[in-house]
Amino acid sequence: MRDFIAAGVAAAVLASAGQGIAQDVVGDVTTILEPIYVTTPLRRPTTIVQSTSTVTVVTEEDIERSAAVDLPSLLRRYPGVNVTTNGGMGANAGITLRGTNTGQTLVLVDGMRVASATGGATAIANIPLASVARVEIVEGAHSAQWGADAIGGVVNIITKDGSLCENGAAICSSVETGVTWPWGGFGTLSTRGVTGSGVDFNVGLSIIGTEGYDFTTPSNSVHEPGRDGFLQGGFNYSIGKDFTWGRLYSEGFYARSNPQFDSAPYADWMTGDMVYGANESIQTNAAFKLGAEFDHADDWSSVFEIYSAFDYQKNFRDDYPDADTHYDTNRYGVSGSTTKEVLAGEALNIFTLGFDAYRETVDSSVDYTETARNVGAFYGQYSLELSALTVNAGLRYDADEQFGGALTYNVGLGYELVEGLTARASFSTGFNAPTFNDLYWAFDGSYVGNPYLDPETSKNWEVGLNWDSGVGSVVDVVYYENYIDDMIVFVSDPVTYIGTMENIEKAKVSGVRATYSQALLDDRLGLDFGFEYRLPKNETDDEYIADQNRLKLTAAASWQATERLNLNADIEYVGSRWTNASSYNPRLGAYTLVDISANYAVDDLSNVKFAVENLFDEDYQTINGYVGPGTTVTLAYRRTF
């Protein structure tokens, strides 16, 4: 069952719902299990109830039960999350939180920045779902913890690590193969375990491909008839060892794909010659890190990491070398933090001090006036846990050699009013750094970057209530407002028609989000419901922001029908999107998607999965002119050795 989690709230919740503290119900006996820990909200391990943010956790069990074949399809079904795609599998996809754009939502892999420095977005379609063990989605500004781009929130994609095997063996391997319709297939191979010397490890390989379908509508100016296929190969690893003084570890992923897309030829308006643009790309993404944890004492620990990440995109069209372009980002970083707990009477005080530093470089077929920049930051966090009261506060300063500095902060409060009912409130600030395209694009005859841009800034506040009945029901409601200033927008000179970017707009995004989870039939049936309504307003022009979601409803059910058979269903309704008088695009219509899946354990080591996405073949668009995936059928078999 999916996880709808509002952090900083009530404790006892369900194992099947994956919330705060799990519990297992057998007859009249309730067994309280260990609390679930997250790392993203406060940038240190903490239980769900110790955070004062709105958090959703997607577990490995959720992923295995889901009908999704890729990461965008998995994430779109969660409340608070907006996923847009330029077609189906492998197409350009973006994820946003709380009415922001893709550059204002920070996406991490294992805590590492992986976005393109030129465009600002993360290629989430090129992160193999087979490599993912968990996703932590934290809504609201979190620049005080993570720095630039965390205006709408943070999505932390956590890859698989090493652990003991479910069958009790020290080391085991798993093979999965499957077919999809539209015609395609996939295969995965992974090995994990713990050696006799105590080294835990995981190594995974994956490949997936599909013939695809025609991504664009006939009215789209780039439309080219024919299917847009996709092929991707991926690799992930994790290795670590515990010592008496702490832990050494390394982890990472690598993915390379070949997505196809439409790019119809057109006649040059001056010469009349036909121009052929790229209609395929080679997309390569990777991130690797090496880290050490030091346990100085039972109440004092430190973490230090170095990492490297890159995003390479090469666009091309067969037989037309003039169509070739490339945009490459390299990022090298180092981070460290130390956390100290101080118990004063019944009050637990937790202090964290940390730093980040990274260097971004770009190489491209396009000329940039600058091709590198350095960023450094220091931050501090304080938490107080005293009886029913939880307080979190943080302060961070980022120094960017392009625009100077940015100071961000957050304050959060949680209080259990009565048993099972917890109120929370928080205020936080954020900022979004301009991209290399915004700043340093050399004049090409029609556009030039603006090196004098300031970062976008935001102020976010929210209030929420969480009720946990203690007998299987969990309800969470939150109201939020997010104010964004100095928004970076494209402007064009009315005389020369030369375009650039400027800080001229401000926006207010307000909304209400509610989730309800229920466990029934001795925890064999789990139900989840989600609701979100947004008002995204451009306060500069006093208009609603076009193409933004306004209403989203979700429902999910997971039923353990027998000891070996698990059945799942998801429903997602998205209302017609906002539009305004200035928008060139028509209003995007409402749609409803239904997904189903069945998992059957043939024996203790083998599993068969049948899944259907978009069961009723709903015709819909998340971006004007680009057709969302129709019915997708998956049949898979997995065997563990």
Which keywords apply here?
641 residues, 3% helix, 6-stranded mixed β-sheet, mainly beta, globular
Structure description:
The chain has four helices and 37 strands. By secondary structure, the chain is mainly beta. The protein has a 22-stranded antiparallel barrel.
Summed up, the helix count is 4
Class from secondary-structure proportions: mainly beta
Radius of gyration: 24 Å
Helix content: under 10%
Distance between the termini: 26 Å
Biggest sheet features: 22 strands, antiparallel, barrel
What low-confidence regions span 5 or more consecutive residues with pLDDT below 50? 1-34
Q: How many strands appear in the DSSP assignment?
A: 37
How much of the residues is beta strand, in percent? over 45%
Q: Specify the oligomeric state.
A: single chain
What is the averaged pLDDT score? Answer: 91
How would you sum up the global shape? globular
Would you spell out the secondary-structure blueprint of this structure?
Blueprint: E1 5-6, E2 21-26, E3 29-35, E4 37-38, E5 46-47, E6 54-58, H1 60-65, H2 71-75, E7 81-85, E8 93-97, E9 105-109, E10 112-113, E11 132-139, H3 143-146, E12 153-159, E13 171-181, E14 184-194, E15 199-213, E16 228-243, E17 246-257, E18 266-267, E19 274-275, E20 280-297, E21 300-316, E22 325-344, E23 347-364, E24 372-386, E25 389-400, E26 404-418, E27 421-432, H4 436-440, E28 456-468, E29 473-492, E30 499-520, E31 525-538, E32 543-544, E33 551-560, E34 565-574, E35 591-603, E36 606-613, E37 632-640
Parallel strand pairs: 9-12
Antiparallel strand pairs: 1-6, 2-3, 4-5, 6-11, 7-8, 9-10, 11-12, 13-14, 13-37, 14-15, 15-16, 16-17, 17-20, 18-19, 20-21, 21-22, 22-23, 23-24, 24-25, 25-26, 26-27, 27-28, 28-29, 29-30, 30-31, 31-32, 31-33, 33-34, 34-35, 35-36, 36-37
